[in-house]
Amino acid sequence: MSTSTEYASVRYFVADVQAAIDFYTDRLGFTLHTSAAPAFADVIRGHLRLLLSGSASSGARATPVEYAGPGANRIHLIVADLDAEVARLRATGTEFRSDVVSGPGGRQILLADPSGNLIELFQPAA
To answer: Can you tell me which residues the record assigns to a coiled coil (predicted)?
Structure first.
């Protein structure tokens, strides 16, 4: 899993990635880190990395319909080897809410905590 020196990442689904970039950078003091608008961007403020995912992003495509849209946020955990993590978790009986999805930034899969809150395991592209 990730180390304590990395950013805490949270994913937000947005209708317009550029409008979200403008809002977070202009109004709330975030700094643009990466932009692949209109699909995706991430902005940073302190130790928070906010992932702004439009409908064309792999993050949005991986999300089941019942969890899609604003308010369907999730914790984003970076892993070094997604396949190994999936195998380890499946061996414990963990059920996944999506299949592995690949995009330009990497690969991801969704699982849920006991209350149904989504957690994303993400392996960045090399």
So the answer is: none
3-state secondary structure of 105: coil
Buried b / exposed e along 61-77 (16+ C-beta atoms within 10 A): bbbeeebeeeeeebebb
1 pLDDT more than 70 = no
Q: Name which of 96, 99, 100 is nearest 112 in CA terms.
A: 96
CA distance 39 to 78: 20
pLDDT value of position 69: 66
Q: Determine the topology of domain 8-124 in CATH.
A: 2,3-Dihydroxybiphenyl 1,2-Dioxygenase; domain 1 (3.10.180)
pTM: 0.67
